[in-house]
Amino acid sequence: GGGFYFISLLCVLQWCYKRVCVAYGTRPEGVDGGWGLWTPWEECSRTCGGGVSSSIRHCDSPRPTIGGKYCLGERKRFRSCNIDECPAGSQDFREIQCSDFDNVPFRGKFYTWQPYRGGAYSKCVCS
């Protein structure tokens, strides 16, 4: 059909193998992917009290082609950051997260949200 004719014009005296023009009688080898460089570490998720930062890399040095294997290993990595305790009297990160929702109506009303501190549950005792 027309599609084959179009491809044959692009691959003069060659044949198309997996979208690549190759000489008659040869079969190109696949190229396995290789990892690129890690990106710089992202900003820490917290300014104090222990946060997380991440960095990524791409499988593009080189990209896998013609059936080559994708890179093995981790695409994203993490590390701890700003692990020093927060200054006394500073707002806890949970309080900050909760306060972000103070101006968002919940079931038609506004609330001042407080973090759950994991109160102790009363044990049931059978006598």
TrEMBL record:
Task: Please classify the protein's predominant subcellular localization into one broad category.
Answer: secreted
The UniProt entry, under InterPro entries, shows: ADAMTS_ADAMTS-like, TSP1_rpt, TSP1_rpt_sf
GO molecular function list: metalloendopeptidase activity
Domain of life of the organism encoding this protein:
Eukaryota
What keywords tag this UniProt record? Secreted, Signal
Protein's organism: Hucho hucho (huchen)
This chain's protein is named: Uncharacterized protein
Gene Ontology annotations for the cellular component aspect, listed alphabetically: extracellular matrix; extracellular region
Signal sequence segment = 1-23
Question: What are its GO biological-process terms?
Answer: extracellular matrix organization; proteolysis
Q: Sorted alphabetically, which Pfam families does this protein's record hold?
A: TSP_1
Localization, per the record, is: Secreted
Instruction: Tell me if Transport is a UniProt keyword of this record.
Output: no
Signal is among the record's keywords: yes
